[in-house]
Design goal:
It is built from five helices and twelve strands. With 200 residues, it is of the alpha/beta class. It has a single domain, classed as Glutaredoxin (3-Layer(aba) Sandwich). It has a six-stranded mixed β-sheet with strand order 4-12-11-7-8-9, covered by helices on one side. The radius of gyration is 16 Å and the shape is globular.
Length: 200
């Protein structure tokens, strides 16, 4: 099992390197930051741009265990029961940092109907993730960690951020690669997809 996981991480690292990866200061290969900070007017009002992908629609939520720096754990599947937005991000990723306050606002505005789950892909200095979120004024997002990059490998993420939307039954609706304004009218339409298919 350990050998299989190590092999998976090695393959992910190679794939990211071949795709032109960015490296965190710790020197470990990671998905690169998406070129989300586009010239003003080229994308959304915050210069964020990305692309929605529905090709994985219907895929089951993976069985992964998340952790935080205190050692608390949570099974990804434990969040089933209401729609779930999983956001993979990192402290060194500029578009990730730009969209954090928008994700925080979305989490507050839809607290009863949507769980927003941010999972840091920082591989080194994971103890800085919680203070980093606090320093950005984020109050509705928890500092979950995935220092081994298991989720990034599962989603074949070549860039960050990447955000995956699951319906209440844990089936993927879409994923979004790149930065996005999560407070926009477009977001409301995107999130309505699962509600239309699973009324009540």
């Amino acid at each position: 099992m350990l050998l299989s996981r190590s092999l998976n991480l090695a393959v992910l690292g190679l794939a990211v390197v071949l795709a032109g990866c960015n490296r965190e200061s710790g020197g470990k290969a990671q998905p690169q930051a998406s070129p989300g900070a586009s010239p003003p007017g080229a994308a959304g009002p915050n210069g964020l741009s990305g692309m929605i992908d529905r090709s994985h629609k219907g895929s089951a939520m993976p069985a992964f265990t998340l952790t935080d720096q205190s050692g608390r754990t949570a099974q990804l599947a434990s969040f089933k029961g209401r729609p779930l937005l999983v956001n993979l991000w990192a402290t060194w990723c500029a578009p990730c940092v730009i969209e954090l306050p928008m994700l925080d606002r979305l989490a507050a505005d839809r607290a009863g109907s949507l769980k927003v789950l941010t999972v840091s892909q920082d591989m080194a200095n994971t103890q800085k993730v919680a203070p980093f979120l606090a320093g950005k004024g984020v109050t509705h997002l928890e500092p979950w960690l995935d220092p081994g990059g298991d989720l990034a490998f599962h989603y074949a993420a070549e860039t960050l951020p990447i955000t995956i939307y699951y319906d209440a039954q844990g089936r993927e609706v879409w994923r979004y690669a790149g930065g996005h304004d999560w407070t926009s009218a477009e977001t409301a339409k995107m999130l309505a997809e699962a509600e239309k298919e699973n009324p009540g």
